[in-house]
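Good morning,

Attaching, inline, the backbone tokens for the sequence recovery test we're adding to the shared suite. The designed sequence is right after.
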């Protein structure tokens, strides 16, 4: 039995490594990284489900925060947008022996090997008797300033929006960590509040990244967000496949979950998207397009959804990774 468990552990580790190796490798030279960092960055977004997930089959909850930290650092990302980050959870501190004593964003910012560390900012969204959780940003670059705003639409859902300004080379890059509500009306009002905030405080020519869990499975928000702020979703920026059958297959894949098309939706469908949308939820069999990365002021070089059993063990969402070159 012990031998079987060891074999299973090695198999899982090898699957994770294959998924990570599919990403373009970053330079191994510190000097080369120092030169390339201001121009080319790797961005990831991930809803980590508070670092606890149920078993595939069964009701037992298992802490995944230690493996999460290892996998996040293996991504070699420069900016990581995190949702459902546990700032404090008194019950889990007593329940699990290895539960971190620090807030999760501080724990995740430190590499297990101490070879790399992030600066981190946490924005508290929901508060309850035994703790609180929210959004966070991990950054390899200096975070110049940050602000958290409450964008809750009703008492049943506490939602916040985290704005951080990072200094990349000699330029300020504005980053917004998003986790919108479960109801369509709430999401629209939260989007409107974010657009108003950006219009007022972010220069129109400033590089901008908005990433997180939008809960927008019906794709109602993208058009207005992109039109209002001049943003492009990273999967839409990738060159379309040349083969007509592949483009048709991707179009059907993108539009399949849409039911009850009205006049407004019919007009939107006239422009067929030619890239395969990022399906991130549920992680075990990704189908709904919940998580996204929008950018302005960058060229998109590579994008990927990290799928498979290894990632599905860590959260109910799959992470997105994008390589961006600062224009």
């Amino acid at each position: 039995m012990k031998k079987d468990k060891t074999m299973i552990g090695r198999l899982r580790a090898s699957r994770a490594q294959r998924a990570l190796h599919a990403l373009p490798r970053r330079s191994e030279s510190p000097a080369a990284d120092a030169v390339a960092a201001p121009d080319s960055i790797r961005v990831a977004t991930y809803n980590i489900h508070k670092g606890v997930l149920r078993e595939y089959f069964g009701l037992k909850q298992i802490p995944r925060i230690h493996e999460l930290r290892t996998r996040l650092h293996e991504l070699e990302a420069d900016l990581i947008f995190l949702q459902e980050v546990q700032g404090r959870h008194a019950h889990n501190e007593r329940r699990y022996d290895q539960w971190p004593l620090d807030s999760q964003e501080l724990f995740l910012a430190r590499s297990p090997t101490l070879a790399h560390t992030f600066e981190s900012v946490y924005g508290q969204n929901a508060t309850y008797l035994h703790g609180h959780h929210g959004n966070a940003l991990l950054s390899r670059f200096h975070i110049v300033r940050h602000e958290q705003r409450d964008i809750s639409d009703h008492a049943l859902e506490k939602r916040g929006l985290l704005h951080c300004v990072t200094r990349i080379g000699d330029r300020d890059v504005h980053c917004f960590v998003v986790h919108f509500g479960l109801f369509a009306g709430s999401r629209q009002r939260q989007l409107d509040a974010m657009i108003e905030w950006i219009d007022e405080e972010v220069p129109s020519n400033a590089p901008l990244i908005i990433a997180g869990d939008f809960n927008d499975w019906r794709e109602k928000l993208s058009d207005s967000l992109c039109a209002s702020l001049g943003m492009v979703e990273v999967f839409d920026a990738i060159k379309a496949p040349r083969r007509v059958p592949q483009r048709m297959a991707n179009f059907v894949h993108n539009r399949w979950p849409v039911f009850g098309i009205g006049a407004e939706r019919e007009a939107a469908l006239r422009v067929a998207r030619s890239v395969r949308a990022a399906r991130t939820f549920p992680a075990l069999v990704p189908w709904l397009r919940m998580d996204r990365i929008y950018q302005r002021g960058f060229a998109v070089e590579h994008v990927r959804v990290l799928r498979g059993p290894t990632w599905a063990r860590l959260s109910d969402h799959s992470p997105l990774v994008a390589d961006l070159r600062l224009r």
